[in-house]
Amino acid sequence: MNRTRRLRRNPFIRDMVRETKLSLDDFIYPLFIVEGEDIKREISSMRGVYHFSIDKVLDEIKEIMDLGIKSIILFGIPNDKDSIGSEAYSSQGIIQRAIGEIKKKFPEIYIVTDVCMCEYTSHGHCGIVLDNGDVDNDKTLPYLGKIALSHAEAGADMVAPSDMMDGRVGYIRKILDENGFEMIPIMAYSAKYASAFYGPFREAAASAPQWGDRRSYQMDPANSNEAIREVMYDIEEGADIVMVKPALSYLDIIRRVKDNFRMPIAAYNVSGEYSMIKNAIENGIVGEEIIMEVLTSIKRAGADIIISYFAKDVAKSFK
Ligand code: PBG
Ligand code: ZN
């Protein structure tokens, strides 16, 4: 008989033969930054996740660094929005100021920034909108270039464009290179699906589109070959890391991308995935072990990097 149970008999042997192990090195922790002072306000759609003013986010970063987390991704929520998202690339914008303050106090923390327009535009779309309502690809590119450059100038370690315009990785690479930032990597949200799993984030970032949806730029959840093409184009344009987003309904995509390209792959365990699980735990429907199970499945599928609101829970489970 093949006795597969021999290697499951006790924790020692199970630990020894475990194929996938999470490490804090894998994680990037998202943070939401708002204008104002002395603000730490729980986001109603995301229990355990907060809006922080810049002064308060410094305390949070101290805490996560003490827990062993080494990297964060920043999202800014400005007070003022307009049709071209000008706060997104202002040197005095919320993110640019936050990066400066964070780096001054914690030079070692690795700062990734989300490069997009939807949190900054009055219409909530990820690009420049024409009179007929279309989101114009090529008119958007210069704005994305300006946003990425302003983040690099403020001191970001890596930029992560999430807008899903065509050609943006190449465009941003060129702008960064021309300005002396050839060593700043680009983590491209390459296979980013038009997903209902972003619901809680859009409440958190006040970034829901004022009309229509994002299906003319984000991917159709039914498509897998198209994800391979998206990733291929981004690699050709100079992406250093490619991302699949969301993670859990797209584990097959993570695996396909890994097998096809052998590039560093990030997976974004998004807000809806977080809140569904968090609520189920808080209501006693499932046990807390589900967090490690789910995150391990993302790594097992092929992700090297996991962006997750659960990063602090993982860190605490290691203590
Ligand atoms: C901005 C952006 C979004 C997310 C990351 N960057 C929202 C969207 O595309 O609507 C989603 C993150 C999450 O749901 O946790 N484009
Ligand atoms: Zn966007």
Automatic annotation (TrEMBL):
Binding site for Mg(2+): 230
Family classification: Belongs to the ALAD family.
Highest taxon, organism lineage: Bacteria
Coiled coil ranges: none
Binding of 5-aminolevulinate 1, residues: 202, 214
Catalysed transformations (reactions): 2 5-aminolevulinate = porphobilinogen + 2 H2O + H(+)
Gene3D superfamilies found in the cross-reference section: Aldolase class I (3.20.20.70)
Organism: Tissierella praeacuta DSM 18095
Residues annotated to bind 5-aminolevulinate 2: 271, 309
EC number: 4.2.1.24
Cofactors named for this entry: Zn(2+)
Enzyme class, spelled out: lyase
Assembly and binders: Homooctamer.
Catalytic machinery residues: 192 (schiff-base intermediate with substrate), 245 (schiff-base intermediate with substrate)
Cellular component GO terms held in the UniProt record: cytosol
Signal sequence extent: none
Binding site for Zn(2+): 116, 118, 126
Protein name, entry field: Delta-aminolevulinic acid dehydratase
Pathway given in the UniProt record: Porphyrin-containing compound metabolism; protoporphyrin-IX biosynthesis; coproporphyrinogen-III from 5-aminolevulinate: step 1/4
NCBIfam families, sorted: PRK09283.1
Keyword tags: Heme biosynthesis, Lyase, Magnesium, Metal-binding, Porphyrin biosynthesis, Zinc
GO process annotations (BP): protoporphyrinogen IX biosynthetic process
Functional description taken from the UniProt entry: Catalyzes an early step in the biosynthesis of tetrapyrroles. Binds two molecules of 5-aminolevulinate per subunit, each at a distinct site, and catalyzes their condensation to form porphobilinogen.
GO molecular function: porphobilinogen synthase activity; zinc ion binding
One Pfam family recorded for the sequence: ALAD
